Prior knowledge:
Residues 23-139 form the Co-chaperone DjlA N-terminal domain. The chain is an all-alpha fold. 72% of the residues lie in helices and 0% in strands. It has a single domain, classed as Orthogonal Bundle (TerB-like), CATH 1.10.3680.10. The protein has helices at residues 2-7, 22-35, 42-56, 60-76, 81-90, 93-108, 115-127, 132-147. The protein is globular, with a radius of gyration of 14 Å.
Amino acid sequence: MFDKLKQMFGRDPVTARPELDPHIAATALLVEAALADGIYADCEQDQIKEILAAAFLLDPAAVDRVLDQAEELAEGAIDHHRFTKVVKVCLSEQERVALIEQLWMVALADGEKSPFEDAFVRRIAPLLGIADRERVFARARAEAKVRHR
């Protein structure tokens, strides 16, 4: 799952010139998932940091920089399209499905199933070109991972 996200940054910069760094765009979506219920819990932030470190092989200082930028963008965002547009262009379908699973991991990090977080991921999936079936499977995988922790 994380291997596909790592490949996102190995793409030819001539063919993919997004307006926003794909690291930041994907992370902003993760932050927005955490903010969807109105509470940005430490466990959600920790989950995002874990995802960043594993998916992008970032050191702790780089994780903090990316997360700080993404938090600033997410808190000031009017809508999700700025982020989803970059992610959809820069990631393959398999990578976008992995991101949906990671969004579920963030939403489930606090141990609660918030209808607001659920609605957020349901809204984001079609914007990323992910079918309902794949979204449901991604959620099941995320729930299984949370249960096995």
